[in-house]
IclR family transcriptional regulator
Amino acid sequence: MDKPQRTSRGSIGDDAAPGKPDNHDRRAVSQTLDRGLEVIDLVAAAPDGVTVAQLTELLGTPRTNVVRLLNTLASRNYVVQNPDGRYRLGSRPLELARLVQPVVRVIAQKVLQRLADRTGATAHLTAAEGDDAVALLVVEPRTATYHVSYQAGARRPLTRGASGFAILSARPPATAELPEVAAARKRGWAVSHGQIESGTWGAAAPIRHPQHPDLSVGVVYLGEPADPDTATQAVLQAANEIRTQLG
């Protein structure tokens, strides 16, 4: 697992809050809350999870304090502890993220249902969260007997699957870029074969809205669709419709 990196929030032991240099602002900061927020940042930056020992080293604070912070965050579902002892993000951050983008969710819900019914595939709205692609909405088709099923909140690296490829393709080209991302930038949509689950096929397109960056809409099939071109055109139309409705 890649070692989690400290965030730019500043030293945990400092009196100063990040970006708040004067003495009055320093006194106004709650150091306990600041520590808790940095714990959330560090857990979010470790998709494979992070241990108490790693957090203790990164935060530079006693282990007992780290455990107390984790227990508090876990009680409110900001983090969860896996059987292997590592901590990962819980459901609460996702619930808050959903409240941040209510307009997008309302608009996307109807568009995704039409997309799912038209293609007979599971449709999704996905957002970038750090280095992960997180499913904000997942809509199952009413026109198919068999389809892929997964829940909102599911996450995977941006570098695996059409939804992440599409989001990355809307960003400026990177020095070391996946060929799938470069291809998606050129044609306007991304595809993936069996990268999420064996036997699945996915297509996605970026929303490309200036006020709502790092969003993509897509579909995932059990097996390759009979007409991939029709599927990708349906995805492009859905992405354009959401962008247009957002204004």
